[in-house]
Amino acid sequence: MLSFNALLDFSRCNCVGICASLVPINILATALTVFQVSRGYAPRSIHISIGFASLAAMLLALHDLSWLMIGVVMAPTYILFTIALVCLSFNIWAGLHPHNMQRIVLTFVGYGHQGLQILWSQAKADPLLKLDPIPLNRTVDIRRYQSQPGIRTRR
Predict the structure, then answer these.
(1) Model confidence pLDDT, tens digit, residues 82-106
(2) Are 13 and 67 in contact (CB under 8 A)?
(3) Distance of CA 85 to CAs 97, 144, 152, Å?
(4) 71 or 33, which is more confident?
(5) What is d(CA 147, CA 133) in angstroms, rounded to the nearest whole number?
């Protein structure tokens, strides 16, 4: 018979493996949920994604609680618990108010797109970014790519 203490001991003995697998699963599954909500996927696929991501977040939170129960109070415990709670709250938000989340995510993406356009237009005017790339598929005359007179290089 499986006891509660055996589960807690298993969680603490295999902490590195559990954290190394649950943290990326948690973040990627929550990111997938946010992506599906923002792109307007079918509600069934969004709910499946929410369920999987919420399960991963709950498992990570329970794993961290097993450490807090024995009195291990360290920064990684709080950091992992915060990751679990943030991912769980994003999944709850996606489940309860998907249209609100979609509007906010698309607003942030729009602002990011505008910022990149501003940066990209400034980068096109920068003469240092107009360097001739070295071709990789043929023999190269290295003298062509050495420093030119009038351009200072550090040696």
Answers:
(1) 999 999 999 999 999 999 999 999 9
(2) no
(3) 18, 56, 53
(4) 33
(5) 14
**Integer Cα distance of 26 and 83 in angstroms:** 8
- Cβ contact 37:46 at 8 Å: yes
Helices 15-39, 4-13: inter-axial angle, 10-degree rounding: 90
pLDDT digits (tens, 9 = 90+) for 42-51: 999 999 999 9
Let me know the angle formed at the C-alpha of 47 by 44 and 45, rounded to the nearest 5 degrees: 40
Angle at CA of residue 104, ends 103 and 110, nearest 5°: 90
Of 103, 101, 79, 80, nearest to 90 by C-alpha is 101
d(CA 155, CA 152): 10
pLDDT in tens, 108-127: 988 888 888 787 776 555 55
pTM greater than 0.85 (yes/no): no
Q: Is residue 90 within 8 Å of residue 56, measured between CB atoms?
A: no
**Structural tokens at position 90:** 């994003």
